[in-house]
Structure formats: C-alpha cells, structure tokens
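[job 4471] stage=fold_predict status=RUNNING
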Amino acid sequence: MKEKTPKIIWSRSNGSMFERFAINLEEYTMTGEAPKGGDQDIRYALKLQKERLQNKRISMQYSFTPRGHFADKDLDCRRWSDAHYTSQMKCRTCAMERTIIRNGKKEYTNRKNMSFYQTITDVNTPQLAKNATYNCPSCGGVSTIAQLQTGCPYCGTCFRMSDIFPVVSNYYFLEDMGLTEEEYKAKLAKFMVVAGILFFFFMLFKYLFFDGIPEGGPVSFLFTLLLTSVFGGVTMGWLLYTYSLLGKLIWESGRTMPMLPSLGSGWRFFNLMKRYSPEFSYEYFSNKVISLLKAIIFTDNLSELAIYEGAPLDGMFDDVIDVFYAGGMGLKNFRIKGDFCFVTVTVFLDNLYDNGEKIYQRRNKYSIQVKRNLNRPINMHFSIQRLQCKNCGASFDATKEKHCPSCGSAYHLEYEDWVVTQIKKLIY
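[job 4471] inference complete, writing structure tokens
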C-alpha cells in the first residue's frame, strides 16, 4: 500500500530565508508588523499599501499552503552580482488565498496555485561591504554598514551583519499551472464521480420515460444501470477533465499572448546597457521597476515622491489595493541623451481594485519610462527611504519629500538611481 505523502509545512525556525519571509509576509497581512526579512523598499511599499487599505476601511489577508513540485525546497533561478552584493532569485510553489474583509465580513476571496518568487540579496564579503551606505533597520537613518555594527549614529541601535543580510529585496507571484501526480488523480476522481452520478440519473430517466425497464427484473435493471454509470462516469469524467484542462490552457495562453512580443527584448536591452554600465543586470532592472511602481501605485502624495518626475496620473491607481507582477516586461525604446539613459518598457500587472462597491481583478498593460545618470555605478541595494543631502549632509526621508528639510536643497534622485518619468496605461 502506497504511503500518503506527509504534509509540508514551512518553518520559521528551521526553514530557509524564503520560508521565513513567506511566514512573515502572511503574518504581516494579519498583524500589520512589517516582514523582518524584507528590505527597506519592500517595507515602504507595504506601509503605503496598508494606508491605502485603511483609507478604504478594508483589510487584506494572505494565506500560503505549500503544494506543487517545489513546495519543500527552494528552486534556484537567476543570479546576478555587483561589486558588493549578490542576488539570487528563488521560487517555491504554493496555494495562495487572498481575502478582503470589509466591516468584519469577507467580501472577496480568491484561491490560486502560485509560483512564489523571491529575490534574496546578500553581501559578497563583509569586509568589502563595510563602507557601503545602508538605511538603519530601526530608524531609517543613513550610515555605513560598519557604523551600524557599532551603533547607529541616529538611534544608537547595534546590528550584526547577520541582522542586516541576507535580505529579501523583491517578491512576486505567477500562477502555477502544473499539477503533481496526487493533485491530478484527486481532481480526475472528482470529475469521474460527478460524471458517474449525472450519467446514472440520465440513464434512469431514459429507461423510465423512453426505453422502458429492460427484462430481467429490478435487480438486473439496477445492476445494468450501475455498471453503465460506472463505465460512463469513468469515460465521461476523463473526457470532461481533459477538456477542462485544455480550456484552461487555451484561456491562459490567450491572456499571455499579448506578452509574447516582450520575449527576447531583455537580452537586447542587456547588450545595449552593457556598453555604458558594465555592472548592469536585466534581472536587477526589472526588480527595480516593479519596486518603483509599487511605491507609485500606493502613494497618496505623488508630487513629493522623489522617484517620480512625470505628469499627474489623474487617479489612475486610486482604487488599486493589491498588485501582482504578471511576469511580462519588454523593451520599447532606449536612448542616450547627455549623461542620462532613457528607457521605455511595457509592463503587465494583475491589479486588484476596490471602487467602494465592488472588488475585482484586471490585467493591465502599462508603458513605463525611466531614466538614470550613467556616470554613477549601479548600487544593487540602493534604497530611497532615507537619503543624505548632498548640500548639508542631513538625513531625510526621500519617499515623503524631494527637498532637504534642513537646507531646502532639491535632491535629484536620478543621479543615484532609476526614477520614473512617465506612466501610460495601454489598451490591448
């Protein structure tokens, strides 16, 4: 007799960095305590999202149940590095349930099989990174990693290197179409049982009202009815399940079709950027764009957001309460003007909306233009939540204001990192 597969549980104490962050993210949606494994930009985006939910007087909860082919182990995906940091994308499969609660009642629930992706960033060597600037995990003040290990100059909190790194610098979800052998058999069995029951009543109706009860008595009739129902249920159930899988595959292929022109553009973009920035990584860039978009989508004070220099968005994202990256990003335009690089990409997002009356999900396509000064080397762990004024050296929160509160000098973030200069919603 085949033993039943033991239940898989993600562990906070004995699990990997991936597991700990997943548990912390799930708990965050219930308690509001920011995930300890997430970096400053993740915490900032979640803080803005929490404020959006509170303003709409709703709450959102995530629930992860490990399942699928990579439920109990990290799948190593792409890897990239710069002088100080190395990032590794990892993946696990799970069932994800997302619930929206309004006035104490569940208003929206969605459960899907997902591939959960996390980008985990670590220092190459502690000695190389000790002079790199970093935001204090306690107060957000700017200092070096070496200073944080002796005491933050702003709040005095001391950290070990292991308290700071490794850290999750990005995460997203993609729907998982794969089924394990057990899942396939369980769903097929349900289809066969339902088909068998329907076939039984269909044959019973046919015999009673059209063909008449066959000779042999009620026992023979019942045996014939049950036998035909079993064979009919097995055959019809298998056919129905096969067609349902085919239909789902066609549906998902149709949703994915608009992303096909984006495939392959990443390599072209990589080769273009390598001419000007040898440390460039396409994976880093796509993570950065998604991180910037999340902050822009959930902010209620766009005019003071240092990462955005474009025109007003006229409420484009006012009703968005959750964002999933749909896995599609393609290069549209690349140009150099002076010291600046301007890049336009198309991005697909699965947005969850709340208009006050209805909660619904839509897949949207956007054209995003970003720019960056090419004379500055890329820092793959640069954060905007706390910056130092170039004029007076004061530390301030660049997510809330573009000007230094101490001396009034404008802070031009495009000299340090990517900034968004244009967002357009496209019809497809």
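[job 4471] summary: The CA atoms of residues 84 and 128 lie 6 Å apart.
[job 4471] exit 0
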